[in-house]
């Protein structure tokens, strides 16, 4: 994969300003980014993240973000 490091933290996200709230599976109250799934025994679960938590801030700079379909 072109020498890119892949990090999996064990959660999926949904929402955002480009999402149509009328088509959302869960009607979140705003255009924030929410956790929609936590993988069992993942770093996310061990850190205490839960489904429907809202992500308020990411303290990092992302230069490449890739989505994998599994």
From TrEMBL:
What Pfam families does the record point to? PDZ
PROSITE patterns associated with the record: PDZ
Protein's name in the database: PDZ domain-containing protein
Per UniProt, residues of the PDZ domain are: 1-70
**So which domain of life are we looking at?**
Eukaryota
